[in-house]
């Protein structure tokens, strides 16, 4: 049996992110692999806990909508990670290293952190 892989898919509220998830499910997912749905919401400048909680909740709701896409693929193992971070991808890199992910999948768009 081959090693189980963790495939991180960036969750954003843009169509290209959903398309990237579908592509990953159809093209790289193997039986036993985990799809890690990762949403990084922006760090609140004001340190307002209510605003931070609202952003976290919206992130979970968005990730759950991505999980619904995964449900059409039988035996898909899914983890959801919602965390606060910067807009430059530093937190994403830290999470990937922390969980030992083998693959990162994201949809490129004009506001992507990769262009910053």
Automatic annotation (TrEMBL):
Transmembrane segments: none
InterPro entries: Rossmann-like_a/b/a_fold (IPR014729), UspA (IPR006016)
Domain UspA residue range list: 5-114
Coiled-coil stretches: none
Name used for this protein in its record: UspA domain-containing protein
Organism annotation: Dorcoceras hygrometricum
